[in-house]
Amino acid sequence: MAQLAISSSPSSNFVLHGTKRTGSHQIRDKLCCLGKLSSHQEVMLGARSSGLHGNAFIHQKGNLARASVNRVIQAVLSSEKETDVSSSPNGRGLRGKLNKVVLAYSGGLDTSVIVPWLRENYGCEVVCFTADVGQGIKEMEGLEAKAKASGACQLVVKDLKEEFVRDYIFPCLRAGAIYERKYLLGTSMARPVIAKAMVDVAKEVGADAVSHGCTGKGNDQVRFELTFFALNPELNVVAPWREWEIQGREDAIEYAKKHNVPVPVTKRSIYSRDRNLWHLSHEGDILEDPANEPMKDMYMMTVDPKDAPDKPEYVEIGIESGLPVSLNGKELSPAFLLTELNEIGGRHGIGRIDMVENRLVGMKSRGVYETPGGTILFAAARELESLTIDRETMQVKDSLALKYAELVYAGRWFDPLRQSMDAFMEKITETTTGSVTLKLYKGSVTVTGRKSPNSLYRQDISSFESGQIYDQADAAGFIRLYGLPMRVRAMLEKGI
Questions:
Q1: Distance between CA 194 and CA 160 in Å, rounded?
Q2: Pick from 135, 98, 116: which is nearest to 210 by CA?
Q3: pLDDT tens-digit series, residues 283-337
Q4: Distances (CA, A) of 328 to 314, 319, 429, 435, 438
Q5: What is the rounded CA–CA span in Å between residue 57 and residue 69?
Q6: Residue 163: how many CB atoms within 10 A of its CB?
Q7: Over the range 293-323, which residues count as b (16 or more CB within 10 Å of their CB) and which as e?
Q8: Which of 84, 106, 110, 132 is catalytic?
Q9: Is 220 a catalytic residue?
Q10: How does residue 90 score in pLDDT terms, banded at 50, 70 and 90?
Q11: Residue 272 annotated as catalytic
């Protein structure tokens, strides 16, 4: 394909325009949307052989300067090949035509490569979207420059930390949702809040499609797309990992070089990780063999329990209507409360989980999770419920919690069933108000005290001392009636 290459200085902003003719009409066609370029970068632009006429112009610092590129222009005009739509978002791509796509963007190799791939295959503008759900400052640095260097016309960043904890984490905590006995659903809860924001951004920028970098083997593709379906079924969804020929990191690097995309220069981790304000997950490499013990240096949020302080630390969690509101008597916002507990729990080695789980797509996978603050909050919430919820209600709540966790894990956050179950959880925890004191010591969380103004525990009834409310003599009749079915069966077997 014939291409037009323009080198720029670090202080220059370039936009190249061409002119198309259709009959007597001229259509001004912006071929690319670019930010500031480094001196080592080039803007590669192509054009259909029958569509580009006239001269190329460069806008530099607001001044229009004619470019002496006649030789290259003639090469473009004489080419019979298709347009390089990775640089021409208004043309039709190799796989179809989309106007504008909002891409879930992290700045890593995969999502950096997806930007030109979308432009090449769907002839679209790409708006990169990054959600701050507490993954850390380092992962947020330099994202705009990376996105634009990859060919995106815009980067949108939204701080979703408070929304994430308040509207997603705390409802799961209140429900007691734990997947397969161990997993506290850190990634599962983060995906719908990110996907919801993507739908909102798509509306704001006028996009007709959304895209993600999830693989075809994982759960996250389902979580993203079910949210898209639920909130805007008219949006097109593009999942490059299910379409492209790229098979791995080396292929991605080669594609990046071919399309002049700066390859992120970072030390590659041997693990696949996902971090947010709730947890940090580790998968891959030696963890793929369930028989292997995790390496000590793998953990990032928690210290090795044996290296934790020799003196225990006590914390008091205040809860109102099933939701945490304070730490050691100080009221904090949901995100700040969790942040504080992560730091406290982390230094005591709290919240390490190693498990083999059943993925939604059918396979088993092994993962290691660090959830220090979440582990503390779960212990506190469950313990306060022991005072405020009666036996029958607790049994129903626990049984529904399993289904609730399954729905969240499967990406059905906006399913009416989960929303209805959440209404039930909210109702039955209305009286779950009070505080719980816990002792943190070398990886363990021990409840040392709990109190509530709505406690169903009555010392005057539970005491071994005789009381007026409970007459111990009444137990004899209760036992005879309660055990009657067992007594009748035994009489039958003995012929009585």
A1: 8
A2: 98
A3: 999 999 999 999 999 999 999 999 999 999 999 999 999 999 999 999 999 999 9
A4: 9, 11, 22, 9, 11
A5: 9
A6: 18
A7: eeeeebbebbbeeeebeeeeeebbbbbeebb
A8: 110
A9: yes
A10: low
A11: yes
